[in-house]
């Protein structure tokens, strides 16, 4: 193996080890109730997790509240972090669960639909989609009914499968798929009106 490739592999491996050590160090400090470690963890992850909260709960005030509650749970449960995923993925799971619970408390339900719903052909909109700006698309997503928005965001931005979404929301997989396709259709309608 050429020297440069060997050096690159060593650098990547060493960097990964250093990241793992840093993660373990901050976890240990949080377990010892080090307020500075808690603040560091919060500062490292809060902005990204706020985006996740906001996409699910739909407004800034509720997202801020959910984020605070989620981080309290992170600090409370940090001892249960076992390293089977990254720390960020573990925190994100807690944030998503708290966000979904907040939505459920507001009694926003997803209606079960027929398993044999006719889902329209997706191919006819491909050219049209490129004409919309990111801001127009964001606005259209924000304008979705809450149930559509939750399913759309979990699938498109949080990388959940329809099966996982169905399990989380306690709906059928076909309902999750239908909600997603209806959300896409609604987004197109909103964009075409604007």
Description:
The protein has 194 residues and is mainly α. It folds into two domains: 3-105, Rna Polymerase Sigma Factor, Chain: A; 123-193, Arc Repressor Mutant, subunit A, CATH 1.10.10. Helices cover 73% and strands 0% of the residues. It is built from nine helices and no strands. Helix 1 (3-31) packs across helix 2, helix 2 (35-57) crosses helix 4 (87-105) and helix 8 (162-169) crosses helix 9. The longest helix is centred in the first third of the chain and has 29 residues, at 3-31. The protein starts with a helix and ends with a helix. The model is unreliable at 112-129 (pLDDT under 50).
Chain-wise SSE layout:
Layout: H1 3-31, H2 35-57, H3 60-77, H4 87-105, H5 126-129, H6 134-142, H7 146-156, H8 162-169, H9 173-193
Provide a brief overview of the structure:
73% of the residues lie in helices and 0% in strands.
Instruction: Determine the oligomeric state from the structure.
Output: single chain
Shape estimate: elongated
- How large is the radius of gyration? 20 Å
- Low-confidence regions: 112-129
Output the CATH topology of the largest domain. Answer: Rna Polymerase Sigma Factor, Chain: A
Using DSSP, what is the number of strands? 0
- Strand percentage: under 5%
Features:
Arc Repressor Mutant, subunit A, Rna Polymerase Sigma Factor, Chain: A, 194 residues, mainly alpha, 2 domains, 73% helix, 0% strand
């Amino acid at each position: 193996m050429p020297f440069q490739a060997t050096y690159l592999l060593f650098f990547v491996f060493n960097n990964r080890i250093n990241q793992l050590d840093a993660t373990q160090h901050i976890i240990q400090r949080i377990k010892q109730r080090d307020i500075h470690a808690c603040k560091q963890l919060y500062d490292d992850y809060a902005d990204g997790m706020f985006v996740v909260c906001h996409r699910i709960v739909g407004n800034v005030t509720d997202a801020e509240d959910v984020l605070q509650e989620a981080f309290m749970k992170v600090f409370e449960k940090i001892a249960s972090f076992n390293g089977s995923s990254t720390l960020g993925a573990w925190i994100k799971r807690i944030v998503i669960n708290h966000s979904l619970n907040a939505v459920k408390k507001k009694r926003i339900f997803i209606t079960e639909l027929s398993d044999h719903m006719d889902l329209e052909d997706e191919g006819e909109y491909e050219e049209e989609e490129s004409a919309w700006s990111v801001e127009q698309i964001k606005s259209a997503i924000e304008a979705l009914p809450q149930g559509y928005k939750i399913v759309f965001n979990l699938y498109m931005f949080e990388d959940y499968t329809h099966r996982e979404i169905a399990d989380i929301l306690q709906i059928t997989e076909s309902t999750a798929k239908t909600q997603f396709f209806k959300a896409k259709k609604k987004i197109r309608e909103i964009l075409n009106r604007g």
